[in-house]
Amino acid sequence: MPGQMRAMVLEEPGSPLRLKEMSVPQPGPGELLIRVHACGVCRTDLHVLDGELAHPKLPLILGHEIVGLVVAMGPGVDSFREGDRIGVPWLGYTCGTCRYCKRGQENLCEGALFTGYTRDGGYAEYTVADQRYSFRLPPTYEDLPAAPLLCAGLIGYRSYRMAGEYVENLGIYGFGAAAHLIAQVAVAQGKKVYAFTKPGDAEGQAFARRLGVEWAGDSDAMPPEQLDAAIIFAPVGALLPAALRATDKGGTIVCGGIHMSDIPSFPYSLLWGERVVRSVANLSRADGEEFLAIAGKIPIKVEAEPFALEEANEALERLRRGALTGAAVLVMSG
User: Fold this and answer.
1) Which residues contact 334 (CB under 8 A, 6 or more apart)?
2) Is the pTM of this model over 0.85?
């Protein structure tokens, strides 16, 4: 086991990540030391980097879509063995005792810790994770495509589940990492998916059509049929009134991001008719187990572009510009 590792480190919000040599972390009770093979690059990482999410651990190693091998274990580990391939998501710890945990809403835990935000993540050659918040991965996915399943897939699936039952026509606003995964789940389950991209994004719309959506168009356009529900993945508040306008009575609009620009005012008539607007916060372990089981059966075609660890800043900038098709994934050498 080496004593040192390379990591891309955030020292202050608003500054680029720095490549540093650091000591390999040691697993504590119930924890796993993981040799990272791949780590997805998520829009939440951009929000942390830009200071839009307050009070991160500093210095911080970003990254919460981690795929790797267990190479050492702390005392009390009983769910995994050395050599197991596992995935580590955003939710890294919950207290188990607060009112939210007691009523089955661990995603809202008052004492939660989050991978790559309040505890170090996977933009590194090694990381430590709590065994209770780590997942076995479907063997049908290699490391590169498995990484985006752990946040784009998981939070996307929770958003999809929150859209409700009796949904035949599903709108998805913003067709990036999460959308391209969940669109495939919805299509496989017999739903008609309507994909909305930023205006004029012909490439993104063609990408959505290749994945089997019913229709793809600009985010300011009306779909050919009214929607039963819509999920907004793009962090653009102005999309909420647009989605309400496109959604039929009784439909739910799910805001699937952790951050969104301000929502402009809109007439009450857009909300009337028992339309529902809701956000999604974090994820639960049950979401992960359910989604990964589904992903192992479909299977989902994951569009992922590899980057070297030291190219993390480039990957983040490409994500910021919307210059990716699918997801970006850091792949560790060796």
Assistant:
1) none
2) yes
